[in-house]
Amino acid sequence: MKMKYLSVISVILFVMTGELCAQNFNSKMSEAQSAYKSGNLNDARAALQEALNEVNMAIGKEILDLLPKTMKDLSSAEAQDDVNGTGAGYTGLYVSRSYGETDSKKSASLSIITDSPLIAGINAILALPAIMTSGADSNQKRIKVGTYKALLQINDSEDGTKNFDVQVPFSNSLLTFHCDGYSETDVVAMANTIPVAKIDEKTR
C-alpha cells in the first residue's frame, strides 16, 4: 500500500514538471524509491522533498516568465530574479523580481511566497467591514488587484516621503508588491499589471 502511495506521488510530480528539470527530478525520485525499498525512510523523505523542490523551481521560473518586464517607467532587473524552491528556510516556493535601480528614488519589487504565515492575518484584516475603503487605520486600505482583494499599506519613509506595500493573498500564496517614489494611484495601477490569476493557477 505504501509503495503504491509512493508511485502515485511520483506520477503526480512528473506530470507537474513536464520536461523541466527532468534529470534532477528523476534522479531524486530514484533515490527516494531506492531508500524506501531499503527501509531508510528518512532518506526517502529527504529525497522526495528535494524532488518537490525541483518542481517548485520549475514553477517559479514559469511565474517569472509571466511577470511584467516593465513597471511604468521602470525596467525589470532580471539579473536579480530569485527563485528558491526551499522558500528561504521553509518548504515552499519563493519568487522575487525587482524593478529599477536599487539606489534610485523610484523602485519597485514583488515577491510570491507559498504557505506564508502572514496569509491568515491579512485575510482577517481584509474581512473587516471598516477597511472597505479606509478603516480606522488610514494607512491601510482594501483595494482590488484584478479580481482579488488586496491590502494596501502606506508607510512613511525616513526622508518624509511615502512608500507602499500591496499584499494579495490567493489560494495558499501571498504576493507582496512594494513601491518607492510613486503616488498611490500609480502604485495601484502598477499592481494591476501583475497577472495574479495566472500566477494563482501556477501555484495551486
Describe the protein:
- The structure is a single chain.
- This protein has 204 residues and is α+β, with helices and mostly antiparallel strands.
- The protein folds into 2 domains: 61 residues, no CATH class; 137 residues, Protein Transport Mog1p, Chain A (3-Layer(aba) Sandwich), CATH 3.40.1000.
- 40% of the residues lie in helices and 26% in strands.
- It is built from 6 helices and 9 strands; from the N terminus they run αααβββββαββββαα.
- The strands form 2 sheets. A 7-stranded antiparallel β-sheet has the order 3-4-5-9-8-7-6. A two-stranded antiparallel ribbon has the order 1-2.
- Helix 1 packs antiparallel against helix 2, helix 2 packs antiparallel against helix 3 and helix 3 runs antiparallel to helix 6.
- The longest helix has 26 residues.
- The N terminus is likely disordered.
What is the end-to-end distance? 27 Å
Please report the first level of CATH classification, the CATH class of the largest domain.
Answer: Alpha Beta
At CATH level 2, the architecture of the largest domain is 3-Layer(aba) Sandwich
Spans of 5+ residues with little confidence (pLDDT < 50)?
1-18
Largest sheet: 7 strands, antiparallel
Name the helicity range. Answer: 40-55%
Q: Helix/strand/pairing class, anyone?
A: alpha+beta
Based on CA inertia axes, which overall geometry fits?
elongated
Overall domain count? 2
Average pLDDT metric: 82
As a whole number of angstroms, the C-alpha radius of gyration is 20 Å
Q: What percent strand? A: 25-35%
Oligomer category: single chain
